[in-house]
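Final report, results section. Input specification for complex C-07:
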Amino acid sequence: MLTITLLTFKEVIRRRIILVTSFLALVFLALFGTGVHYGYKEMAGHVGPLETMFTQQFLALGLYFGSFIVAFLAIMAVVGAVSGEIESGTIYAIVPRPLKRSAIILGKLLGYGLMLCAFAALFYIAVILIIRFNTGLSVPVQPAALGLFCLQPLILLAVSLFGTTFLSTLANGIAAFMLYAIGVIGGMMEQIGHLANSEVLIQIGIVSSLVMPADAIYRKIVYSLMATPGISTASMLGPFGSMSEPSAWMLLYTGLYILCFLALAVKIFSKKDL
Amino acid sequence: MIIETNNLTKMYGNKVGCREICLSLGEGQIFGFLGPNGAGKSTLVKMLVGLLFPTSGTAKILGRPLGDLEARRKTGFLPENFRYQDWLTGEELLTFHASLYGLGAQDKKRRIPAVLEQVGLSGKERQKVGTYSKGMQQRIGLACALLPDPELVFLDEPTSALDPLGRREVRQIILDLRRRGKTVFLNSHLLSEVEMICDQVAIIHKGRIISTGVLGEMLSGSVEVELQVEARTPQMLSELAALSRKIAADGSHIRLSLNDRQDVGALAGIVVKNGGRLFGLKVGQGSLEDLFIDLIREGGGNQC
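Structure output:
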């Protein structure tokens, strides 16, 4: 299994997946940092809760689009993990070797999972530091929120790994992006539902977070980062905020969701004719 | 037995991949597996190496059931549509496959240069596989298959991308494996190559094995005779045809295939009796190509 993990690491480095993503992430962070710097400077006249709210808007913006980038990396890197190797033929020399097929899937999971977690953690810390240095807002790194930020790409990793065992690379990519979009749009509708007091929109949001829980995890991060005793300013951030904190049950559900997709990926690949 | 299959069958829905394959292959042999395109050759190889799951039937590799990891540790496989991670160097690719085989650091140090030398890629191991020619990629694939010094090697069209010199070198590698008591399962379209090196062959057609046996015995059953005759008559041809499996006449030349070498003597008698003049009679053994074409035309099949 570790042999496959090491090969996966080598692949993301040699095929310049990490290089390109890191470069674009740096461009994003530079743009974000510049925006925060000048935006905050312009708002220097404002004091009190309004200033805090603006600063938190910046934080939410950074984390929201950071989630996007990490999600895209997860999907693009993993979408052809098995199907791509079947299409290119490289898998035919690996499967007959003395290792279980489950070890191939789990090795790839570990390789991509560690890479995505490292990337997500660095991105999260960079966003927090940009906010801290430019605004002076004391946002703690919060290990729990950091862990949740790393959990987001793992959800997409599990889904994409499942899809790549039986779909073509292109079909799997489309399916994973659509699923992610359902979660994002559902999450926004839920926030609008809270603002408009629409039970239907809230229910749509809940169902969509069951279909794809990545957005619910983002809402939990935002809520926990911006919670102050008595009141959470996260509720004031509109579609990027979080009117209510997703429960611990949602985290349990997400864990089972990941395990379920991974178990299915292993099961399908273990019985697949190549 | 190194390979033993019993009614091994693979169906793709209603379509036959291969059906009721029964093979027994002993140690230290080169086994040629032949058949036209789409006959089921690759399907059988893929089942034996664990890429496909049989629909029914059983098989044992090195005395163990299909999929057994211990048997795979002693089995090498070069796939037909070879393609390797082109972003790795040749050495890294071999190190990766050595790790998959569970070789330790010392074994890797010993085996990697040895197989590079064996396939003629010494000095090229630092190059990326993506920069290799097709022939070099086939060689590095063969090197991967030979890494664990396997007891059994499956080679699916091992010389398809090689030039004549490369083919000769690979033939030499295969013969060397046999000399060291290894068993080689050779899947090839190149009948002349199979004829040169194989001990046993099986011919598959429409998913069924239609003939199998020791190559020498299979070929000795067919005697090719070429007659040079003047003043041939229809009656003469009819009598010659009655003795032969196949006959073709072109001008003064008559080519025929006999099932029994004993019938050669009678041929001259038939020519003379029918008023013909015999200027030449050449007897030879049938080629694998002739046998292959005859069997494919006849179809048929055998069972366990």
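The interface with chain B takes residues 3, 6-7, 10-11, 14-15, 88-90, 92-100, 271, 273-274 of chain A (CB under 8 Å). Residues 101-135 of chain A form the longest helix (35 residues). This concludes the modelling results for the funded period.
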